[in-house]
Amino acid sequence: MLTQNLGYPRIGSQRQLKKACEQYWAGKISLGELKETARQIKETNWLTQLDAGIDLIPCNDFSFYDHVLDTSLMLGVIPQRYTPVLSQVKANQEIDLYFAMARGYQKDGLDITAMEMTKWLDTNYHYIVPEFTAKQEFKLFNENVFGEYASAKKLLGQKAKPVLVGPVSYLLLGKEKEEGFERVDLIKKLVPVYIEIINRLKQLGAEWIQLDEPCLALDLTAKEKEAFEWAYRSITNRVSGVKLLVATYFEALLDNTQLAVNLPVAALHIDLVRAPEQLDEVLKLIPDNLQLSLGVVDGRNVWKNDYERSLSLINKAVEKLGANRIIIAPSCSLLHSPIDLDGETAIDPEIKNWMAFAKQKLTEVSELKQIIAGNKQLLDANKNAIESRRTSRKAHKQAVKDRAAALTNADVTRNNAFSARQQLQRVRFNLPAFPTTTIGSFPQTDDIRQLRAHLKKGDLTLEQYEKQIEQATIDAIRWQEEIGLDVLVHGEFERNDMVEYFGEQLDGFLFTKNGWVQSYGSRCVKPPVIYGDVSRPKDMTVRWTQFAAAQTNLPMKGMLTGPVTILQWSFVRDDQPRDVTTNQIALAIRDEVLALEAAGIGIIQIDEAAIREGLPLRTAKRPYYLDWAVKAFHITANGVKDETQIHTHMCYSEFNNIIEHIAAMDADVITIETSRSQMELLQAFAQFEYPNEIGPGVYDIHSPRVPTTQEMASLLAKAAELLPVQHLWVNPDCGLKTRKWPETKAALINMVAAAKHAREQLT
Which residues carry out catalysis? Predict the structure, then answer.
């Protein structure tokens, strides 16, 4: 019986990669220094897995920005607009081209937009979307994969296992950038390059190669299924002497089970954390020559593995296949987990005993193998931890459970329809056509972060800290007034993170010191941990929002994070249904909404940036999720008066197949990210005849480039062709926390000018 890991966090235990990348982008360190940081992280990761007793250790799972973008560079899938960048960067600095594709390029007389970014399936990790044309060609453009394997093999020997994004999933996760073809049709051009890569890895000594095909867990068309069959038949016809392992995760194979188990590969990995029920069908259909990798340790959450539950699955598979055909593994790459629990000294010891981070999950994989070999002491210790969590009074609060259970239809119904509310709100706020606003946060400068650090260390009193935060808030308000924004925000200088800030003030949450995970590129987040029943003991935002509103005569938005987003961007308890936890959070946010309204705040934004992210991967499972997710939003928003305007915001999302549910949320104003897609996402709203107001983002805040007034005005003109002018707002794609002030100010000044131009030309 073997053990394996599918991937490991690449940011470094102290976020070394984040810091090194940002220093490189700023010109403060050399390429050599950046690569040295990467080398140290990779070697630490490999040795950690070796020490844990893992038999097959991933390499080429490291990335400077995103593993899908790495694949695009490897395969030469470089959009034509980056051709000028190729002539600007040195031959040995393809990394500058790579970062330009991820972040945009605005220097050397060039102004090139970044590639589109979207969520990796149903996670909060973002990948750079491959762009395909009808005449797309593929070639081995970047050979980093071979250097990665050589380095890993030198350290690990034959335990080193190269990881690649599988060819079919790579195509399906991309986008056609012109009409007249389907990207899956490119498979016959793509596979020969994969054959070349796999054969070269074999020549270097690779015994196992992992091909990630998460799309095998999605609804597939007949053509897409044929692509899988053709691709892997073609690869195995041209490759021998190396074992291919196809990895699926995040959902059951379901109707793709027959397809997956009959691919001509050595091993198949399945996710038995997300979908344990699929094991029976896989065992029923599995051919005699296929090894099975069982993903029994949760790669996406922080809870200790229930060994009895995992062993029941492993033993069932062993009984059918024999131990020598079984591989024990996490459910997916540990990219989605924090790195090491050992350094978390401030967590309540009782609760800490229920938890496991990436390093500890490696130990769990090894311990499961040891228990099967006869080590019952490991099983007994695990049973005690699981029982402690099940019965703890710290996790279970009956009053909170009872309140959520008592919800009725009256709690999720707004007084009047949007058309009636809209008239009252227009009278109250008297905004111009194309009203301008931002999504909420302004740049968190080093000064602001240092203030927070000094407060935590005791170098500042709370009074001193708040005085300086007040001044930063006043400065932001004055600047917004100066440039002519119509609806202001207070800037959120007192907040560390849009979820963490609320979790710190809600019961049932805990926080880590170094529980960082990668969101995109150098952007790391430290998700809260929901360990118990959730409630709101006191006001969370009223003090700062009320202070900000008192500084101006213009409307001031109250800024809250919605319940589904708090759920999605936290590590969630797995001992009760997710909808139950969501309703508890929704009631807590509802209390805050009503407190803001009582304090005189007339516009309240409840961000549900992650509602699309939580959508089940399989169509048949979506109605139930959408029902409770929309209901949770109504619980938060529907207690206010008609003249109180409720906004919501959603991050990178495809809305076509859920647009009726977005409309059912009935927010007075929705803001969405549309600039990178050139307003493409608005098509769904136009076809549906979306009835409420909408702010399509015109400024891509995930890139440092400053869009021109003309560029943003052009985007507004596109929006006006699709939706009623009287329903359109003007705003950036997302919050501005991660940007710098100079680029933020320049971009927002241009945005206000674009709105004025739209008023003149389009109304």
Answer: 702
